[in-house]
Every structure is written in structure tokens, then in C-alpha cells.
Amino acid sequence: MKRNIVIATLTAAALATGGTVAAFAAGDDEATATQRQTNTSAQAAADRDDADDSADDRDDRDDATEDRTAVRGADVTAAEAIAAALKHTPGTPVSADLDDDGADAWKVSVVKGDGTEYDVRIAPDSGKVLGAQRDTDDDGDDRAELAAVKGAKTDAREAALAAAHEGTVTEVGIDDDNGTVAWSAETVKGNSHGEWNVALDTGEVTQDRDDDGDDA
Is 120 exposed, middle or buried (CB count within 10 Å of its CB: 0-12, 13-18, 19+)? Predict the structure, then answer.
């Protein structure tokens, strides 16, 4: 009788132990599956980030290629184009762009004393004025830009001259994206495309915080 009780006790203990092991095994499998799902989600997010970075890099390379193409044969600098535009159309220059919608000319935007704005096109090889057209697309932004640069110690031409130390300037204009109004300039130097901010008061050139110098 005692023998049967002992056997029954041992059998129950063995079953209990096996059940515990099975429970632990099931728990391990569930934890492993959860970890595997977490790792998969993290890898998918990393892949998306890599794809976004790759797309940004392609855009930067395209910008650099377009800029290098634009400066070929452009003997007239941004500062010289602005000076030529002001000689033809006196006023306050607010921007200059060498590659405007694929046009083979500098486009200098000048605001006259009466508030009207003109786009003056300058030949990039000779500095000759190709024409001037009044800009009728006024949404108020130009007035805000003009107010920002009025009285500034550094004008668009001087900003272009300052940024030229970093490379060939292909564009200069007003930038207030970061809350501080400044001149913004884009340059090319070798295979590199750069974006710079030029302070209105001091003319100090600093690299755009959103741009770290991209190679094509």
C-alpha cells in the first residue's frame, strides 16, 4: 500500500515538472516570436530611412549636376549680373538665379522705388541685358523680403561676393526658413554643391544647417 502511494507521488511530481518545463518552453517560443517581430519592424523602418536618404542623395546629385551645367560658359558672376541689372533697372535687388527654369541667363529680380518688381535677364557670357519684364505675380512675399533687406548693411551683390569664397555662386536670395532673415546662396565647387547663409548685418557666411555639403 505504501509502495503504491510512493509511486503515485513520484508520478505526480514528474508530471508537474514536465508541465512546468512545457510552460517555460511555450513562454520562450512566444518571447522569441515577439522579439523576431520587433526586429523585423525595426529593420523595415531602417530600410525606409535608407531609401529616403538614398532619394535625398539622388536629388542632391541632380542639383549639383544642374548647377555645374549652368556655370559652364558663364563668365559673368552673380555679383556682376546684379550690377548689370541695377545699371539697367535701378532699385533694390532681391535675388539672382543662373538656372531659372532652364533659361540660359541670369535672372535678377529688382524692386524699384515705387514697389514694382522687374525680372532682368542678363547674358551669362557677356553681361549684356537681354530684357526686363515686370513681375505681376505679387502675393505679398516680395514686400516682406524688401522690408527685410531695406537698411541692411549687406545687399544681394555683396552677399554674392561673400559666398563666392565658397565656390561659384549659382543663386542668391532671401531666406527666412529658420526664423532669422538672411541672404541664402548656392554654390558649386568641383563636384560639391553647397548652400550658405550670409548675414544681413555683418556679411558673415555660414553653412546652411539643413545642408552639410553634398558631393555629386
Answer: buried
